[in-house]
Automatic annotation (TrEMBL):
Highest taxon listed in the record's lineage: Bacteria
Protein name stated in the entry: DinB family protein
InterPro entries (alphabetical): DinB/YfiT-like (IPR034660), MST-like (IPR007061)
Pfam families associated with the record: MST
């Protein structure tokens, strides 16, 4: 999806368009990277492009499952990985191909939620001290907006990491990943031939 979310004639189309745009943007940060490069943390943090893909996959998939289960309570043991921070670490057995396959599956799942779920359905939450008094859960609408926020935040992290790795930036990566060719205002990214 080139550069901007498409025009939206409805709330649902807007949610879906921005979800797809942000998810594509994060995916494109990995375009052309090697197995070694997805594990690099070139900034002061420990974040890596591969780790961000892994974390966002788990996050998007878990929130999508919660939305699909509404109005039933959803409990996902995979979320324990988030508490331990394992969702940001790329394992030795994980590859860019396997990370992107999981990411693409999570993307398809959340876009299906955006396409068909009742936006007013409430996904209940277990009581927790950080929730306001009387809080019972999130609407599917809120969940989709939260996923957009979460993906956008991490897409920004990935943009910085990618630029530090090899100088590639968003628009040229999108142009290359989408096969758009020379658009005049942007040249598709290509690996440095030096």
């Amino acid at each position: 999806m080139p550069f901007m979310a498409p025009p939206a004639g409805s709330e649902r189309a807007g949610l879906r368009g921005f979800l797809a745009q942000q998810l594509d943007g994060l995916r494109h940060t990995a375009f052309g990277l090697t197995e070694e490069q997805i594990r690099l943390s070139p900034a002061r943090s420990t974040l890596t492009v591969g780790g961000l893909l892994k974390h966002v996959t788990l996050t998007v998939d878990a929130w999508s499952a919660r939305a699909e289960a509404a109005p039933a309570l959803f409990i996902d043991p995979r979320l324990d990985a988030m508490a331990e921070g394992d969702d940001f670490r790329v394992g030795d057995d994980e590859t860019l191909t396997s990370l992107l396959a999981g990411y693409d599956a999570a993307t398809a799942r959340v876009l299906a939620v955006a396409d068909g779920a009742d936006l007013d359905a409430v996904a209940p939450a277990r009581p927790a001290p950080w929730f306001p008094e009387g809080f019972e859960g999130w609407t599917v609408r809120w969940i989709l907006l939260h996923i957009i926020e979460e993906v956008a935040r991490h897409a920004g992290h990935a943009d910085i990491l990618r630029e530090e790795i090899d100088g590639a930036t968003g628009y040229p990566l999108i142009a290359a990943a989408e096969g758009l060719g020379d658009l005049g205002f942007v040249q598709p990214w290509a690996p440095d031939r030096d």
